[in-house]
Design goal:
alpha/beta, Rossmann fold, globular, 3-stranded mixed beta sheet
Amino acid sequence: MLKQDTSMRLPALLTFPILAAALSACGGGGSSNSADPTIAMTADGAVQGVAANGVVAYKGIPFAAPPVGSLRWRPPQPVSAWSGVRQATSFVHDCMQTSGPNSALTVAPSEDCLYLNVWRPQNSTGKNLPVMVWIYGGAYVVGGTSMPKYDGTQFAKEGVVIVTVNYRLGRFGFFAHPALTAAAAQSGETLANYGYMDQIAALKWVQRNISNFGGDPTNVTIFGESAGGEAIHNLLTSPLASGLFAKAINESGNGRVNQYYGRTLTRNAKTVGASAEEQGASFASGLGINGSDASSLDALRALSADQVLGGLDTSTLNTSHSLATFSGGAVIDGKLVVDEPENQYKAGHFAKIPLMIGVNSADLGFSTQGITTKEQAYAIFGPQNLSAAAAAFDPTGTASVASIESQISRVITMDEPARFVARIFTSNGAPTYLYRFSYVAQSIKNSVAGATHGAEIPYVFDTLSSIYGTAVTSQDEQVARNMIAYWTAFAKTGNPSNAGLTNWPAYNIALDNQLEFNAAGTLQVNQPNPLKAQLDLVEPLNDANQTVNRQYQ
């Protein structure tokens, strides 16, 4: 998709004295021995980053052409090569989204957003270091690499080259329309999942270029959280991503059949509700665009970015207008997204590589409205399991109905799907490491019942001050050091236990084990999982896909 002929480009670039001197000294990448260790070569031109504290950071490197104008709702297209040295010293744009006063973005969002960032140890050239590629979450409608909690400095200090990538969001990233389908009939272009196409394009950029930053393209670990975790499942199960990475880490990414809610590109027997094309047509009709010909497509591409955005964010995601006009995320298109991850996993159609996967203790769940009694909460398990459910979810008999319902929804949405994926990978001979993150920062432990959705991220990146400021304690910092040590050990060797901390045994189906970053701030191997009774009750329901309507009614 992004293959380019660079055979005529390098000699022209080398006519620039500063670049020629730097590259002659380092063999194509940055090095402490070069004339300028902050300069590195990419297939499209040279970039210059910023060195500080033993780390060189490159921000705002384009990995695809701006997806604007006629390139809106098309697969990522090649970058235009540049001459001389491009400054890669600051973030450019995050992808188009609603950016309110509470946004953590540090740059303005824009439709021109296909940039990535690289952090590497300053002396990394020739080291063939492991590479980690981060995919952020945000319900496919918010998020961006400029967020301070995603800063890669600490990863680079741990001896890895880390890349964070932007991808199109909302209707820019996941959209279908009959006019787009008609236009692609001749070209055969992949449709609908443009955000995932961006991620694949970024991974291809890594394969072509990361060796010039000291990274090993054969040792790439992809990792992501929430929607980014869902993306990991899709990359693991997509034939279009095959061979682009060697390991994966999934943080709170679900993985069951309820991921797409039956969204298909066009209507077929498996479609639940509207197809993605029908949702796109509904969106276009609301703006007076009703055809499916070339002129209708021109009209769609002539809409302003704000018109396409249409106020879509996490607060409006489940409104009637958004549900009618936005797919909500991935679309089963038959090429990139072949089927639900669960179906692909069960069929053995996935990359059988080392995997780390886990959830948080108070992770995301979608409680059913109108539940007022414990019996109603347990009814989903069937009359034969009411006593078992009460023993599993309320062993003391003192829990509130709301807390029971919330826990059931979390196990349905996060805990059981993570164990399901761990079992699939383990059964297929792929080393798998299951975790649970239960730690809460000391400054908020008295106001939060557990580790909420996404709470692990600043610990994984060791960027606690970006969230908690000066309230970070030494115990908080120790948890962060433990997490980043495990994550980087896994990236380096495929085994997190090589971090030299508490041994983290690979998942064993019979033992049903996991590593817990517990509430006390220490490391604990749970064998079996303390939630085993809850997981075992939910498992047959998720296997039979009986939980979708309960969560998403």
